[in-house]
Specification:
341 residues, mainly alpha, 7 helices, elongated
């Protein structure tokens, strides 16, 4: 199994990109070395998984709490970062142990992609915790400092939120290790974040039935979509979670779609553009009238006649004799003598 090389961002960042934090987040948290989805259906399942997890996690929580609390969101973000820092390496370590026991490959073969995924994990956690710290320190720097920190904090907030969307889809680029790791990590993470509420009985003031329903909404939804995603990978491409990545053949990239037809130029009347090139076709190479026959088309000249003998003879020319040669005088033969019977 081969792994893509290249720079982290693929050279897509420019100075103007930093005016749009979501562009920077896309380049940083979805690097160029992360493999693309195998087909549009798997990519659509990833987007559905991300949206379903966000709705079940944040939307339901906001509805239960009766409003959106920014400070509560910062605390939840810090808690989620700590959970990710613990759960992601633990889950990947379990899978490495199972792959090692299968005997199909070694952990050393996965060293490079594992280090890249770990860097992406630490980069996201550091960005999220740094954003939380900026907002917490903003009130202790005076008015001017608060305004400056607010601008930086808002940029970082948009950057982290856009990065969280990217991270939820590729789950720290773990698809470069194994295609089934992102859905597995998504399901495990949502379950381990919901279990503490069930164990402690923190139902957010709801009844037992409603509390369990709202708490289990996110893990059940994300797990169902993750199972469907892994089922597609197994049935269509033969990729199973239990298989060591070393035994999996390299997967081709997505099939490019048809090349779009460019729009007609602005000077074309009614959008009509005449066909380009020679409308009469390409002339044949060489003489367009064909190759003349080889040799003299009037026949082979004979001795004495510079113009040669026509191919089919001349109706005005007598035989091969010389018409100017002397001829014997006309002497008709004598009739036979009369010989009566």
């Amino acid at each position: 199994m081969t792994y893509p090389q290249g720079s982290w961002t693929g050279g897509t960042l420019t100075a103007r990109s930093f005016l749009k934090p979501h562009h920077v987040a896309r380049a940083v948290f979805h690097p160029a070395w992360i493999p693309q989805s195998l087909d549009p259906s798997v990519d659509a399942l990833k987007k559905v998984r991300v949206i379903a997890g966000a709705v079940a996690g944040f939307g339901v929580y906001t509805f239960v709490e009766g409003g959106f609390a920014f400070d509560e969101m910062l605390d939840n973000a810090a808690t989620a970062c700590l959970v990710l820092l613990f759960i992601t390496p633990l889950t990947v370590g379990v899978m490495l142990y199972l792959w090692q026991r299968s005997g199909a490959g070694t952990v050393a073969q996965l060293k490079e992609p594992l280090l890249r995924s770990l860097k992406l994990l630490l980069l996201f956690i550091g960005s999220a915790l740094g954003t939380v710290l900026i907002f917490q320190l903003g009130g202790s720097l005076g008015m001017l400092g608060t305004m400056l920190v607010s601008v930086v904090g808002l940029w970082m907030a948009f950057f982290v939120i856009a990065g969280a969307y990217r991270i939820s889809g590729n789950f720290f680029g773990t698809a470069v290790v194994h295609r089934c790791l992102p859905p597995l990590l998504a399901a495990v993470t949502t379950w381990l974040m919901a279990i503490p509420d069930l164990v402690t009985g923190d139902l957010h003031g709801l009844s037992l039935a409603m509390g369990v329903f709202f708490i289990l909404g996110a893990p059940v939804t994300v797990t169902a979509i993750a199972m469907l995603e892994m089922g597609r990978l197994k049935s269509r491409y033969g990729i199973r979670l239990a298989d060591h990545p070393a035994v999996l053949s390299p997967m081709p990239g997505p099939t490019p779609g048809p090349t779009p037809t460019p729009p007609p130029p602005s000077y074309a009347p009614n959008g009509f553009v005449p066909p380009q090139g020679n409308p009469y076709g390409t002339p044949p190479q060489g003489n367009p009238y064909g190759t003349p026959p080889q040799g003299n088309p009037y026949g082979t000249p004979q001795q004495g006649n510079p113009y040669g003998t026509p191919p089919y003879g001349s109706p005005y020319t007598p035989g091969p004799q010389n018409p100017y040669a002397p001829q014997p005088p006309y002497n008709p033969p004598a009739p036979p003598p009369y010989n009566p019977q």
